[in-house]
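Annex B. Sample input.
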Amino acid sequence: MQNILTASQMKELDLRAINELGLPARLLMENAGKDCARIIYEQYPERLNAITCVICGTGNNGGDGAVIARWLHNWGHDVAIAKIGREKSSPETTENFRLCEKLGIPILNINSESDLREKLLPILKLSSLVVDAIFGVGFHGQPKPLMAKIFNLVNERAEFIVSVDIASGKNADTGSEETAIKPDATLVIDSFKFGHFLGDGIQSCGDCHLIDIGIPSSYHDEISPAQLFDEEDFEAPKRKRKSHKGSYGKVYIFGGIPGYTGASVMAAHSALRAGCGYVYILHRIELMAVYALKLTEALSLAIPETPKTQMPTQKTLLHLLSDASAVLIGPGLGRDDYSLRLLEIALKNLEIPLVVDADGLNLISENPGLLQYIKRPNVLLTPHWGEFSRLCGVSTDDLRADCLGPLQDFVKKHRARVLLKSHFSIYHDGAQTLINTSGNDGLATGGSGDVLAGIITSFLAQGQDIPLAAMNASFLMGKTAELLAQKRATASILPTDIIQNLFVEPCSDLW
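Annex B, continued. Sample output.
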């Protein structure tokens, strides 16, 4: 898995490499800039047929840009530097600008709006490639008015933009941005940053290329970075030819209320399609006929009730669940007293993996006394942003600005395991943070979360642990949506299409 760092972690690694290994800061800058230039030269040669405009800030990102300019110049390409700002630079950055001057690379100082019109705009018109080396990971807050105009001018006029490390104007920790460069490609220095995935996500970065600057991998391991879960990390549950249906676990799913039974049915079908041996839906007695009509491969059982109260009977219900391998509660569950009683029984008593989704999460937010049970190591919460907003008491607007902070705070406070779902998915349990970015807008349809919950529960029933099941299921569902988008418009993708196409080619070779 690829590492994902905060801005402060990246700075810490730089300092350790300099102070402990004795790698000069100028060598790290040289490694970064030269490899960035190499990637541009190898990946985008058609963009080097006219002037390359390298827009540099005065910080170390600007120093990287100066190294890029120098190497492209050495390799015979026309280069010009647009230098933004009057702030004092580090010795390494200052020296690289001096070397560019000695090589005769034009350096245009951009410090006013008139400079935008008279210097930056003309060079942008002549350029076939613009390198954004203005801020890097050091940016936070909002750009100053002149800088915002520079960003907008570059976005409007540049034919092709390559950002160094992360797009200028984007927060490296949260992905938030007011006005920012919109790159066609990003040259990621050493490791991905959270800002590459949060906010607008990886889609706002263009094509990403990792740049190795010489920091030892052992240094990364010691800071326990988050990690990107990708195709090479996917691992389906193991299967053997000499096996039977009992070999792959039993999933029990609590059924829904009238009008919402489809959620639990889709969860059941996705659990089966993901490979578990049995699926049972436990339903309210009055919905027996509904589930009998809707289910073929999955089985259904009426929830045992106390005749006097017509509420679930704990002892008999737990006996029914005694042979379960994993349990899912929430899809279409409802939020009445009956549903609350089912959730209480599950949270307080089950020792096997328990996935809490949808209405199960809403019931917890409405009954905060239940939060004490989510610390149990068998419980996984799978909220989307709206559900998580209600759980943690943070507005969805604040989550959009920074979802990682509230997630970390919630997990630390309640010792929970959470898969937070959006156009990317983050799993966090206090010990590890994993991010999946597979998927597309075809998943922006009611029922997609129910399908994902079913896949996760199926993988848990087949023996995967909670982090692995959560990320494998999230990746598989997203990858399936991507493959379907090759055959049909994303707007036409239904949750049932996802179920029917799990593990189709080219995913089948992942078994």
